[in-house]
Amino acid sequence: MRKTIFSFLLILCGGSIYAQSHTDTAGKHSPARTLTYQQYQAYLKGEAGEDLARVAEMNHYPLPDKVLKWRVQLDLSPIQIKKLTEASAYLRRRRLQIGGSIIDTERMLDSMFRYNRVVDGNLIFYANRYGLYQGELKNALLQACLSTQKLLSQQQMAMYEGLQKRN
């Protein structure tokens, strides 16, 4: 048991210390070899996954940040602005938290394969964990869209969609 834990920690530390950088099209290096620089930065800055909210946005459930961008044109009330700002801040915190977990999981999977330490049980665990984080990220985005749509009147939604089409 101790030997397994020691090996696991050695892999984890070794993967972080000796990871080779991945070069993407922009010529910048990602500290996580399996992610492009843009993907890594998006996870790190809490900006990743906006495409995961596409199903909500296509069906008239906007992201709070996008609605806040048009606060004046939509004539949002102070209460709406406050709630949308809170929803946006919460979503950003969740994106940062989940993004860090995704980066860590990517590094672990990379390390397991790079050092030929792939064990079926660990592979299943980390692959499922990765899927769980992607699901959490999608849920956080969709929940934010749902709460945003509930805050807006029908007139505000119609105006928002008109503004989105023009830009």
What's the main sheet like? 2 strands, antiparallel
Mean pLDDT, rounded to whole units? Answer: 88
Structural class: mainly alpha
For the biggest β-sheet, the strand order reads: 1-2
End-to-end CA span: 59 Å
Helix content: over 70%
Instruction: Assign an overall shape.
Output: elongated
Unreliable parts: 4-25
Rounded to an integer, what's the Rg over CA atoms? 20 Å
What is the subunit organization of this protein?
single chain
Q: What is the H-and-E element order? A: HEEHHHHHH
Strand content: under 5%
Strands, count: 2
Number of H/I helices? 7
3D structure, described in words:
There is one protein chain. The protein has 167 residues and is mainly α. Helix content is 71%, strand content 2%. It has 7 helices and 2 strands. The chain has helices spanning 2-18, 37-45, 54-58, 64-68, 78-114, 120-151, 154-166; strands at residues 22-23, 29-30. It has a two-stranded antiparallel ribbon with strand order 1-2. Strand 1 and strand 2 (29-30) form a beta hairpin. Helix 1 (2-18) crosses helix 5 (78-114) and helix 5 (78-114) packs antiparallel against helix 6. The longest helix is centred in the middle third of the chain and has 37 residues, at 78-114. It is elongated and about 60 Å long. The termini are far apart. The relative contact order is 0.16. The model is unreliable at 4-25 (pLDDT under 50).
